[in-house]
Amino acid sequence: MRFWDSSAILPLLIQEAFTDPVQNVLRSDSGVVYWWGTPVECYSALWRRQRDGSISHTTLLTSAQWLQRLLASAVEIQPKQALRAAAQHLVASHALKAADALQLAAALSWVELSGERLTVVTLDQRLRDAAQREGLATLP
């Protein structure tokens, strides 16, 4: 299983520079895990691109449908007090934005609950660095 953050999911929804490598990672994935807030981050990015004219409204709607299908079969990490406390610790330990700290806390929570090794799929360098320092593998 792999933990996917919004920076890695977005190239699956719309054509970007990292679309091909991220699609290759998804093809080899045995299961997707994501943080509860990730869909909101993805929708926000899609709407921003539609507003600035870089994607059409039709592309936005198609991308939103694809996102729903992808996440329907994925594992969603719910917001909990322990996750928030872990994220607060992570922002003190790493140079992360709040949403990235919550995503990393969710990934670490999954590792703790499942006992499985988890790879974080992210295109965000700060999140990648923090995940690696927390002992998680990263892709691409």
Explain the layout of strands and helices.
Layout (H helix, E strand, L loop, with lengths): L1 E3 L1 H8 L5 H9 L4 E4 L2 H14 L5 H16 L2 E3 L3 H13 L4 H17 L4 E3 L3 H9 L3 E3 L1
Helix pairs in contact: 1-2, 1-3, 3-4, 5-6
**Number of DSSP helical runs:** 7
The oligomeric state of the chains shown is single chain
User: Would you identify the regions where 5 or more consecutive residues have pLDDT less than 50?
Assistant: none
- Provide the CATH topology: Rossmann fold
Mean pLDDT: 96
Using the 3D structure, state the CATH architecture. Answer: 3-Layer(aba) Sandwich
Order of helices and strands: EHHEHHEHHEHE
Residue share in β-strands: 5-15%
Q: Percent of residues in helical segments?
A: 55-70%
The CATH class designation is Alpha Beta
What is this structure, in a nutshell?
Helices cover 61% and strands 11% of the residues. It has helices at 6-13, 19-27, 38-51, 57-72, 81-93, 98-114, 125-133, and strands at residues 2-4, 32-35, 75-77, 119-121, 137-139.
